[in-house]
Amino acid sequence: MKTKDLRELSLQELEKKNRDTRQELLELRLKKKTGQLENPHLLKVLRREVARIETVAHHKRRAAAV
């Protein structure tokens, strides 16, 4: 998901998306450890997605506090 799309989501939606993405990342890590992961590049993609979501959520929280 692009940053522009993330900015349009509410804070609650961002938190839910963050939880879902982190859960998916955990599952991929487990698959990697067991040797079942076919595309290891997905780990990098999901880590960046989590960072992007957290950054947008942080900016929304700061804007709401001001």
Question: What is the secondary structure topology, with strand pairs?
Answer:
Layout (H helix, E strand, L loop, with lengths): L2 H5 L3 H24 L6 H25 L1
Helix pairs in contact: 2-3
Number of helices: 3
Structural shape: elongated
**Low-confidence parts, pLDDT < 50 over ≥5 residues?**
none
The number of distinct β-strands equals 0
Tell me what you see in this structure:
The chain has 66 residues and is an all-alpha fold. It has a single domain, classed as Orthogonal Bundle (Helix Hairpins). It is 82% helix and 0% strand. The protein contains 3 helices and no strands. The longest helix is centred in the last third of the chain and has 25 residues, at 41-65. The protein is elongated, with a radius of gyration of 14 Å. The protein starts with a helix and ends with a helix. The relative contact order is 0.18. The mean pLDDT is 96.
Task: Provide a short characterization of the protein structure.
The protein is an all-alpha fold and 66 residues long. It is built from three helices and no strands.
